[in-house]
């Protein structure tokens, strides 16, 4: 599969990325209770990069993977925004940074995987 895959394939890749990143973000949520803020942010970036590498080696569609990662982080961030009456929207760059880490991992692993000849 590549970036020119049909829309339904990219949708399925995005949904798979959403589910994988939701599980990762729940793990980061519980991990952040035990770590200082800088270490929690570093752990989130490294785990996002790792998830991107794993999904990128399986699917080869980094933009769909990154959109799924951003959707997952936005879903996790929505209750915080509601409780703070929108003040937490200042943390939106963190969501983009997480999606960028996932995209970088998915993009980096693409040249490492062997191409199938058809």
Secondary-structure blueprint:
Layout: H1 7-32, H2 37-59, H3 62-83, H4 92-109
Radius of gyration: 15 Å
Largest sheet data: none
Oligomer: single chain
Shape: globular
What do the pLDDT scores average to? Answer: 87
Strand content: under 5%
Distance between the termini: 12 Å
Question: What structural category do the secondary elements indicate?
Answer: mainly alpha
State the order of secondary-structure elements, H for helix, E for strand: HHHH
Characterise this structure.
It is a single chain. The protein is mainly α and 118 residues long. The protein is 75% helix and 0% strand. It is built from four helices and no strands. The radius of gyration is 15 Å and the shape is globular. The mean pLDDT is 87.
Keywords:
mainly alpha, 4 helices, 0% strand
Short description:
The chain is mainly α and 118 residues long.
């Amino acid at each position: 599969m590549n970036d020119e895959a049909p829309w339904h394939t990219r949708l399925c890749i995005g949904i798979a990325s959403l589910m994988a990143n939701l599980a990762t973000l729940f793990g980061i949520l519980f991990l952040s209770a035990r770590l200082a803020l800088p270490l929690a942010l570093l752990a989130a970036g490294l785990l996002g990069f790792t998830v991107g590498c794993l999904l990128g080696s399986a699917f080869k569609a980094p933009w769909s993977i990154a959109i799924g990662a951003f959707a997952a982080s936005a879903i996790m961030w929505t209750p915080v925004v509601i409780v703070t009456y929108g003040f937490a929207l200042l943390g939106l760059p963190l969501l983009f940074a997480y999606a960028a880490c996932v995209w970088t991992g998915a993009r980096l692993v693409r040249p490492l995987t062997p191409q199938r000849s058809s």
